[in-house]
Amino acid sequence: MGKRKVPGLNASSTADISFILLIFFLVTTSMDTDRGLAVRLPNPPEENQQDPPKIRERNSMIVNVNMNNQIMVTIAKEPREIQVSELRELAKEFIANPEDKADLPEKVAVELPAPFGVQMITKNHVISLQTDRATSYDTYFQVENELYGAYNDLRDELARKTFGRPYRECTEDEQLACRQYYKCVISEAEPRKYNQ
Amino acid sequence: MSKFQKKGKAEMPELNTSSLPDLIFSILFFFMIVTSMREVELKVEFKVPSGTELEKLERKSLVSNIYIGKPTKDFRAKLGTQSRIQLNDKFADPSHIREFVQAERESLAERDKPFMKMSLKIDKETQMGIITDVKMELREAMALSIVYSATQR
C-alpha cells in the first residue's frame, strides 16, 4: 500500500464565514459606555422622626425650581431669580465663603486628614433643592449638574493648590481629603404642588 | 543597461489572502468580547439630558436600569403619552420598584450587594413628580446609590 495523499481542506470560505459573524457582532454591539451623574440618596425617613436640627439662615442656600422651570436662589433670606449658568458661581461662593462674609456660611475649625490638619471650613452649610411636581427633569438635572459641578470645581482648585495637580490625578487619599474639605451636602425636599 | 531591463511583461503578483481569515477572526473576537447585548426590549422612548459632571459606570453587572419616558408608538394607542416606568420588560408602577430592587439584589453575589447601583434613564421632558415617587421607593428599598444617566456635553 502506497502512501495516500490527504487532500488539503479548502479554507477559502472561512474568510466569508467570519466576515458574516463579524458583521453580526458589529451590528448588535453597543459600544456606548454608560455615563451619568452619581448621586447618593439619603436613608429612608424613620417613623418617629425628630424635627431636623435648625439650620441657621446664613448656612442655608435654597434653590427653588418652579413648575415653569424658573430658578430662584435664596441665600441669607435674599431671594433672587437666576439662570442655570449663574448657579455654579453662586454655589461656589456660598460653599467656600472665601472672604468670610457674615451672611455666608460660618467657618468652623475641623480636624482634617493630612496634609490639611485643622482647617476653618464651612462645615454646617446646606444646599437645599426644592422642586415642583411639574418641574421638568431636564431643568432639575441641569441644576444638580451645576451644584455638583461647583463642588468638583472647588475640590479641583484645592487639589491644584495643595498637591499641584488636578483632582482626578490625585491619589485616593488625597481625593478623600479634598472631599472632606468640601463636603457635599445637598438635601432634596419633597416636591410640592404650588398650584394646589 | 540590459541588466536592468525587464524581461517580457511584468505580471501582477497575486495577493496572498491566506491570513485574511485569521485577521477577521481576531477582529471578530474583539467585538465578541466588548459587546454587550441589550437584554431588554425598550418600551419607552427616552432622550437623556446632557451634563458636564459625569462619571463612567464601571462594572455593568452591578448596574440595574430603570427607564422612564413616554411609551413607544406601538403602545401609545393603549397607554397614551403619559410618562411611564419600565422595569425589565414590563411597564410598572412606582409600587413595583421595591420588588424589582429585591430581585436585582438577589441576583448579585453577596460581596457585591452593597455596591449595587441604579441607573435612571429618564427622558428630558419627564415631570419631576413621577421621578420623586421613584426616588422615594428607592430610598425605602435601600437602593441609595443612583446614577442619572446622561450624555457628556
Report on this model:
The complex is a heterodimer of chains A (196) and B (153). Helix content of chain A is 33%, strand content 21%. Chain A has 196 residues and is α/β, with parallel strands linked by helices. Chain A has a domain at 57-188: Nucleotidyltransferase, domain 5 (2-Layer Sandwich). Chain A has a five-stranded mixed sheet, covered by helices on one side. In chain A, helix 2 (84-96) crosses helix 3 and helix 3 (137-163) crosses helix 4 (172-181). The longest helix of chain A has 27 residues, at 137-163. Chain B is of the alpha/beta class and 153 residues long. Chain B has four helices and nine strands; from the N terminus they run αββββαββαβαββ. In chain B, strand 7, helix 4 and strand 8 (145-149) form a beta-alpha-beta unit. At the A-B interface, helix 1, strand 1 and helix 3 of A face helix 1, strand 3, strand 7, helix 4 and strand 8 of B. Strand 1 of chain A pairs antiparallel with strand 3 (55-56) of chain B.
Question: Quick recap of the structure?
Answer:
The complex is a heterodimer of chains A (196) and B (153). Chain A contains 4 helices and 8 strands.
Which class of secondary structure composition applies to the elements of chain A?
A: alpha/beta
The counted number of beta strands of chain A is: 8
**Given the C-alpha coordinates, what overall shape of chain B results?**
elongated
Report the C-alpha radius of gyration of chain A, rounded: 27 Å
Order of helices and strands of chain A: HEEEEHEEEHHE
Q: Can you tell me the residue ranges of chain A where pLDDT is under 50 for at least 5 consecutive residues? A: none
* Strand portion of chain A: 15-25%
Could you give a short account of the major beta sheet of chain B?
A: 6 strands, mixed
Q: Kindly, what is the distance between the CA atoms of the first and last residues of chain A, rounded to a whole number of angstroms? A: 101 Å
- Oligomerization state of this entry? heterodimer
